[in-house]
């Protein structure tokens, strides 16, 4: 009988232990599915507790006029990913426009192809046999920000998404505010201008008609027609104006572009000052296309907010950029709902 | 030996039992002290779990420039009442302008005689040897409304006090919103008019400069100077105008008084519509002097609110009068903090 070299045996055993542990960890790790339903596409992914996206995919939302054909394609794309990963899938979180947490439905979403009330949570539960939670996309983003992003550790903050519209997720005492009916946090539809710009909601002067990527473009067009100042945008077709383009030209020093951003920041800053009077948050987290304008937008917004808030809050409330990547954030936010369900 | 009448013995024993039970109930009943610190007077009372005020009293706030002389007089007036009642005093709840729940202090209250930061909770704890909780007067009123009043059973509502100013207490998921710093819920200082009326806070256009008893009087004065319409108030001195008087004349049909209330309701209704977009409450509860104008104020306020809110909330959010009596409400609200502490 060969007596083994003791050191070698110890080395092998130690590594076998580490390997076994890792296999166990991977097999036992808790995972969540995040589904972000947008007007154009639906993105989905499988995320671990640390916010790493292990698998992801995408299908078209817009091509499915029929909800069953939509959920079938989604199931066929997502289920194989679920089968591939090692670990325990704890549930599915869904972020969608007009997603109602209480009812598990999507209700009359103007930017989605399906009419009326869609019982999405029940459909997914039946298909996947997993716990499912839904909320609106902005609330999902707030949960993601709290779980994985800039707002980690914060109990009171407001997440503002400056995209095509203005979405918001309000967190108070560590919980997303859903309100009596599940639809709270529609800060894009606070009316900030009497007889102001017409809004998709049918009313006038809503915050999102000014403070959003679309709002900035509208402001730029107004300035181009009102003023005679030289501006690079006089030489491109009106319909090619984008908020990204405006931010880029402002950074290069275009006066009218700077003015357009300042106008936007003024309205946004004053609105934030009013929101502080409501919930006295620790911070606002800005996210979305327009937020990527960076200091150009943040500095004047912070200035106007502090000029317009009560003395007790001057220079005390932070305005911070989200640190989640635009691609991941929606899926991460939706998936984070799953951890919330369990707590 | 006389054999007692069995029925009589049973009767006596039963009644002795009931009497003993009642004595036990009274001796063991849980009571709370409520202290409402106002700019002029401080009212206090001892309240049972059902909201019955067993004892109450009052001292002057305004005459005490020194906090120690104030707390001494309060102690000397309140302690004998505590000794008189039967039952267990569970604690003291205090409602005060700028009362900070987190710090247990009153901070820079413009309408109170003491400057700077007053550590009132610590002072009372030492004096009375009881648990003490403080919050601002409007938050205390909201807790009172939730515990004993119109909002009983509601988890999401906003209490609005229309007095000299506009105070607010916001309840979300059954908890008063305090915010990151304990000062949340300053809805009177949401700016609703650009370059509007000057406000005591040093800014312009705050909601409370329009929607409050004082605001209504300012509106009436503006209308009297702008318009030539006949009005009963043309014949009384400007400084004798009161919101109560305006409501009374409006009820009698005075056109300008009706217009003044309608103007107030318009601004208030639009502000409520914006607040719905924030927290989607089940109801607004209106309280305070101006709320006593009743339907004259409520009907147009509800109309303007519904005209200005998103479609999903039209005709869904209630606007209700408080059903607590003006005298009791402040004490009840402050005392209700004690039950909140224990839950």
Task: Provide an overview of this structure.
The structure is a homodimer of 343-residue chains. The first copy, chain A, has 343 residues and is an alpha/beta fold. Chain A has 2 domains: 31-144 and 328-342, 2-Layer Sandwich (Nucleotidyltransferase, domain 5); 153-322, Nucleotidyltransferase, domain 5, CATH 3.30.420. Helices cover 41% and strands 20% of the residues of chain A. Chain A contains 9 helices and 13 strands. In chain A, the strands form 3 sheets. A 5-stranded mixed sheet of chain A has the order 3-2-1-4-8, with helices on both faces. In chain A, a hairpin with a 3-residue loop joins strand 1 and strand 2. The longest helix of chain A is centred in the last third of the chain and has 25 residues, at 255-279. The model of chain A has no long low-confidence stretch (mean pLDDT 91).
